[in-house]
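Notebook entry, structure prediction.
Reason for the run: the old model in the group folder had no record of what sequence produced it. Starting over properly, with the input documented here first.
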Amino acid sequence: MLKRTMMSQAVSMALAAAFALPAFAQTSGTPEVPVARVEVTGSSIKRASAETASPVQVVTRDDLAKSGKGTVAEYLQTLTADGAGSLPTGFGNGFAAGSTAISLRGLGATSTLVLLNGRRMAPFARADDGQKSFTDLSTVPMEAVERIEILKDGASSTYGADAIAGVVNIILRKDFTGMVLKGEVGQSRYHDGEMAKASLTWGMGKLDQEGYNVLVNIEGYANKELMNKDRADRKWIGAGDLRRWGYPQNTQFAGGFITPGASSPTPTGALRDPVTGNFVSLPGCAALSTTTAQDPAGGCLWYHDQFRSMQPKIDGFNLYTRAAKRLSGGHELYAEAGYSRRDTEFTLIPPSVSPTVAFPPNAQFPTGVINYGTGANAIVLAANHPQNPYGVPVRLRYSAFDVGPSTRSADNAFMRAVIGVKGEVAGWDYDTAYVHSRSELDLNYSNMLNMPALAAALGNPASNLFPYYIGAQAGRNPASLYQAIARNATSHSTTRLDILDFKASRELMQLPGGAMGLAFGAEYRREKLDNPSLSGTENGSINASYVAARGDQDIKAVFVEVVAPVIKGVEVNGAVRYDRYENFSSTTPKVGVKWTPIQTFALRGTYSEGFRAPGPAESGVESQSTGTATARDPIRCPGGVPAAGGATLADCSVAVGAVKIGNPNLKPETSKGVTLGMVWDPLANTSFALDAWKIKRSDEINPLPYNEAAALPDAIRSDNNLVVNGVVQPNTGSLLLSRAPYRNSSFTEVKGVDLDLKQRFRMGDYGRATLGLTWTHIASWERAESATKHYQYAGTHGNCDTSNCAGTPKNKVSMVASWDRDALNLTATANYRSSMQNVAFAGDLCASKFANGSDAPYGCKLASFTTLDLSARYNLNRNLQLFASINNVLDKVAPLDPLTYGGLSYNPMDASGAIGRYFKLGARYQF
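New structure, fully documented this time:
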């Protein structure tokens, strides 16, 4: 066990928090005071040393304050251990819009367990990608956070499912007295994107002296919506039209262009010539589209940035309360209650009248798919419609600008209550509690299309809605028409979590290296999800696909843990947990060793096993979702070259939907993880840690990759088949929808290295300074879909179907320099991510092309990105503190990213480079 001289528990925790490294004590002649025992994330045994065999990074309140970040999620997403699958605030077109999440090791938010004060929270009420259940970090009040502990190896042996990639334990304040008022405002250099935030923290009663404590924290905040068109002069940021940088016009955020036998949705309306089979645009484009360099093929070209938000409008409120009362006999009664409300609003593009939608099969539609663009259910313009010059019913491609853009509102309410007792009995430290947590999500999507009414208004002369004038003549329509064809789609989703747990620990006996510790515990947990689909999607009657999940399960678990300092300087710890689900059971062990041959040096290593149970969205018989991602059409773009007979570059990067259906026969995912590292304090003020790690996740629950699903014969295509030498090639039309069923695929193996450095400087009259560096290197991120199909994603943009198309950079670095002198603190933080190959996986063809056919961008390489943030705090007196920060102080522009769909032409994880330099100013007053 590492020997250290401590003045108090606070000093112990501060040293641990300093950089998640052991700060080895220097011997002195002063007598040691009693050492307080603390519980560290990943272990249930209290100990004198905050360092275990597992690598744990600790973020303090001070770290959060110095960062200038506005939320817990914003800070955690700058961690080098965070990777692909993380959910930023600006991801408004995703399934889980309105939420935020962290993805350790790039294994997805569903493999990162998030705890609040060491216990679980109810997950967000809508699974990301219709599949992945996760904890929404937006519900955590930042001002109430005491510290955050990030366990960087698996912890299923202690906490059960979902801890495959690690654990984020957010620990809130307790035993606080006094009152603090805090407020801040912010604005970008473009004088937009304004934010405001205020909080009040109040506490009374000192637990140790007075026997009780009550704490209340209230926090309110608001962020204004930021539009992509607000960044029209910031190079490519927010731009759908990338022709200025050498790209073709038909990129993923383009609309209205016409290709042989096809047309994308256009604001004027495009009609299919019954003789030639090609689409012809109606007049009036100049009044509808802001794009001046128009489609040479005659379409009415427009881009999504004409409507779409970059950052959503947000209004939020957090309430957290805690009360503790000392009881006789060394016991303590405690209770926690929290409530969070977060309303977000995100603007997307106007609806298209010719979507392909999927829903549960029924008697009328046994395939569960309606193609409103081709075939028997195609939306047509009646022969006698005033805008139809052909005299026969014709197909229509139309983006309903007259209906208006769709606004997605996601209003999430979260509550959590805990009541428990802890204390000491017969030498045992125990803690038992009941937890109830609930999340409610109300979705409201405006300006959705009532497809039966729309079909009648365009194609049925007998309907009282006919004729619906489109495009340039839409001003002739009465308001009653829009009341009939446009509607709001809504849903109300809930998740519920109930937990009853107990754990106890004590020292058993003295071993040659110190006291042996033992802990055991038990847990009963009930989880319930009810996520109905948006109204109208159950039968294909609106222009959106069905996304729903339902299920509940009971989990019972027991665990035991031992820490044994077998000889001086060698500590061995082991734990095992047994979880019983309704359809399976899991036993997950973990073992760790720490060897400290000298006071300032230690070697450490762990081996752990973990699991993740199939979620209701994956295993529920009522569960189904349809996701969309960019893929290369293997039929119309073989080998990355448009096929002869009518294919274009648009077919080489097409947005394809994939229907995913719950599979009750799924097995749980399992994992094996290994860490091996060292910690070293070579000098009095220098800390150094290096950890290598590997995680292998087997029996993964994944849909079939989009590129493979697109090649299956049951993929749904338009009827604009390729025509080669006058011969029609069957089933070669534009790709619309594929089937990507859930199944247990082979495995993913991720390997890498974490480096942590910290140097402190004592500068006499000039104060003190600290330099810190955290670096994570991903050596390999390999997924095996089968025995013969392996995909390497390290250093690539992939994979889009499970990582939100944000990519997997090989290197992420965070550097922090902080200087304190008297009442002043200045901090600079630099965050770096390395470049990535613009390919779906290593060795694949380039995912994007310039208009001349060459690889894009910059030889198929996405540039690296570095930002610098500055913050300052000044204490005017003992009560009043002023603080300010500048995010992206150098105003770096995020690199151009043509493949991602989370941001328009920039990676959503580079959002600070899209928003631009951002200023915040605030004050804190403590009574």
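Summary: The chain has a mean pLDDT of 90.
The old model has been moved to the deprecated folder.
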